[in-house]
Automatic annotation (TrEMBL):
Its main location: membrane. It comes from the Eukaryota. Keywords: Membrane, Transmembrane, Transmembrane helix. Residues 19-28 have a biased composition (Polar residues). This is NDR1/HIN1-like protein 13. GO terms for cellular component: plasma membrane. It is found in: Membrane.
Length: 281
């Protein structure tokens, strides 16, 4: 028997041609380039940062070269301060018998020299405020007028440092211990001022400095003749002043006070206490 043939597709009912089984074809759209705004902004930012860094590094290099050239050309050095002599005319610590009150009076004669070792640099100083201390105890104050230190110039000053004030218990204990030392009480001279620097026609702004001179030892005079403090080991350093200075400390401590009864007082030093307490700035 011959196998029956089976048609692969059913004939159309209405006699029409059979439908095509292939998928419809779509026309491909042409490619359009789209700009990436985020990438463009990123590139611009990177470029800006790069050139900023280059400019900063260039300015830093230029400043370093300029500074090195100025240093080689002018050879700048710090000014030098020296304590030539310090005479103690009065240093009295008066304490009540019951230690309920204490009083300090002092008078110092200071000779100070300032030297400018530079050949092309000039220093202009405002008035100096002087302070004499023994450890943390303030003994007196003084001042030096404003001056200009020319090139390779030495300037010598003489100043009075004086004080009169009450002391608290801690200050009395510290000062009495220092005054009883055989080698003398350790003294420190502090000088505060402002200075500007002039190199040729260029002048800097004023900056605050503090000159601290240590290594001084002195003893109170026993009579009317002043004693000479030892300044062989004295050394002065130029430092930046502290941020907060007790400017009102001296004004509040150096005041006219009522006269106490000195008949009950014992005195360390030469001169007798004054009739009233008056500050000497």
């Amino acid at each position: 028997m011959s196998a029956a043939a089976h048609p692969t597709s059913k004939p159309a009912v209405n006699g029409a041609a059979p439908a095509s089984s292939s998928k419809p074809q779509f026309r491909q759209q042409p490619y359009r380039h789209r700009r990436n705004h985020h990438r463009s902004r990123r590139n611009l930012c990177c470029c800006f940062c790069f050139w900023t860094i280059i400019i900063v590094l260039g300015l830093a290099l230029l400043a370093a070269i300029t500074g090195a050239a100025l240093y080689v050309l002018y050879r700048p050095h710090r000014p030098q301060f020296t304590i030539s002599s310090l005479r103690i005319s009065k240093l009295n610590l008066t304490i009540a018998a019951d230690s309920s009150a204490s009083y300090l009076s002092s008078l110092f004669n200071l000779t100070l020299s300032s030297f400018n070792p530079n050949s092309h640099i000039t220093f202009s100083y405002d008035p100096f405020t002087l302070s004499c201390l023994s450890h943390s105890v303030l003994l007196g104050n003084g001042s030096i007028p404003a001056f200009t230190s020319a090139t390779n110039n030495q300037t010598v000053f003489r100043a009075l440092i004086s004080g009169a004030r009450d002391l608290d218990a801690d200050s009395v204990t510290s000062l009495r211990s220092d005054l009883k030392k055989k080698g003398g009480a350790p003294l420190t001279i502090e000088m505060d001022t402002k200075v500007n620097v002039k190199i040729g026609k260029v002048k800097s702004k004023k900056v605050g400095i503090r000159v601290t001179c240590e290594g001084i030892k002195g003893t109170p005079p026993k009579g009317k003749s002043p004693t000479v403090a030892s300044v062989l080991d004295a050394a002065c350093k130029i430092l930046a002043p502290p941020r907060q200075r007790a400017k009102s400390c001296v004004a509040s401590q150096y005041q006219i006070l009522p006269t106490p009864n000195y008949s009950q007082f014992s005195t360390f030093g030469s001169a007798s206490p004054p009739s009233k307490r008056i500050s000497i700035a």
